[in-house]
Structures are given as structure tokens and as C-alpha cells.
Amino acid sequence: MTTVRLPLFPLNSVLFPGLVLPLNVFEERYRAMMRELLKTGDDEPRRFAVVAIRDGREVAPTAPGMPDQTALPERGPTAGFGADPIQAFHRVGCIADAATIREREDGSFEVLATGTTRVRLLSVDASGPYLTAELEELPEDPGDGAGALAEGVLRAFRAYQKRLAGARERSLATAAELPDEPSVVSYLVAAAAVLDIPSKQRLLQAPDTATRLAEELKLLRHETAVIRHLPSLPMTDLTRTPTNLN
């Protein structure tokens, strides 16, 4: 079992390998994380782990709120996640490699990272200025029939795109922009489909590529049918998620 200890960045979204993650970092705990990552040499990856939040808040309250206007705002690395933060997170996440970390004049950061490797969350350490985690790297096994399933998923995804584009009166991405390698297909479709966090999380933690593709085929067929009756569903980009405000 290969384990690694990395800074932990919980988000209200699921990151997949190969997908781009823009971040607008303004909370002090995550500013401290970025300042530490900037100490890494230019020839070394600036890595941190992203996990989806199961129960908690991505951004900690910064002022007294309802119903108690006198309550002090939460501070520190666990703010918004409770006394035992590991319980607030989904246990499978993704390592992110920060290609760009740019500090603004006000001390906040603009970050552009890319998902690389799936990991399982083993433990969380809250003793420092930001959360760190012990993580087990997860292999990407192809499973049985991944190639044929990928072809079916691509066909279903194109039909799904057409329904979305028609609903939003937007142009459709060309087929040439879509990959054909099964694992890449599985992650691209998982990220691009309009699904809730639990559904995306199930796809991320699928035991192998074939299982993920089979589940996507079912989801795409179902969602395509739904769009016929709900033509106002939102459209998403293929390889980029919206900027996350930590």
C-alpha cells in the first residue's frame, strides 16, 4: 500500500483525474497552505488532496449568525467541519497538482490545479494551520470490457450533449474533442455530466474503469430522457469546473 501525506483542501465538489480545478483562495487556513506550497521548488509538483465535503461548510462563518448573534465565528483548520473532521468528508478524493499559484495584493491566491491520482483518506491531522491527511493512492484498474463500454458511453454522451445544447440553445462540442481512452472517457463524462455530488462521488470511487463506465451509461440514458421533459437544465464545460471559492 502506497501512502502519502499531503495538505487537504475540502470542497463542495468532486475532482476527477485529468480535470482542471480553478480556486479562489481567501481563507487564512488555505492561504497558509498555498504559502507553504510555494516553498516547493519549481522542479517539484505542488500537490494537495481534494475531498468532497459530506457534512460541513466549505467556507467557515466569519461573523456571528442566526440564531445567536453573539456566537463567535469558527476559526482554525477544522472550522465548519466539526470536532472530528474526517467524518465530514467523503473517503475517496483526488490529488491536485497546482500548475499556477498566484498571490494577489490582498494576500489571497488564484490557483489553477489539475487532478492527477485518486486517493483514499486514511486520517486527518488538524494540529497545524491547515488540515493535512494520510492518503492511500488508488490504482486505476481497467476492469472487463472497458473499451466497448467506453464506445457506448461516448455515443450516449453525444446524445446527452445534444439534448443539453438544445435545451440551452448553445453550440455543441465536436466529436474530435472527445477522447477514446476508457479511463479518460470515464472521468471526463463523470465531470461533465450534470449530477449531484453523491452521484459524482460514486463514480469517482468506482472499483475500476469498466464499472464506472457501466454506471455512466445508465446515468446518461436516464438524464437524457429527463432533459426531454426538463429543458432548462444547466450546461457544464467538459474539462473545467467553476472556480471554487474556498
Q: What's the SSE blueprint?
A:
Elements: E1 3-11, E2 20-25, H1 28-37, E3 47-52, E4 92-103, E5 109-125, E6 132-137, H2 146-168, H3 182-192, H4 197-204, H5 209-229, E7 244-245
Parallel strand pairs: 1-3, 2-7
Antiparallel strand pairs: 1-6, 2-5, 3-4, 4-5, 5-6
Helix pairs in contact: 2-3, 2-5, 3-5
Features:
five-stranded mixed β-barrel, 7 strands, 24% strand
What proportion strand? 15-25%
- How many beta-strand segments? 7
The succession of helices and strands, N to C, reads: EEHEEEEHHHHE
Strand adjacency order, main sheet: 1-3-4-5-6
Straight-line distance between termini: 31 Å
Arithmetic mean pLDDT: 85
Shape descriptor reads globular
Helix proportion: 25-40%
Unreliable stretches (pLDDT < 50, length at least 5) are 169-176, 232-240
Rg from Cα: 19 Å
**Total helix count?**
5
Major sheet, described briefly?
5 strands, mixed, barrel
Organism: Streptomyces bambusae
Protein name: ATP-dependent protease
Keywords: Hydrolase, Protease
GO molecular function, one term: peptidase activity
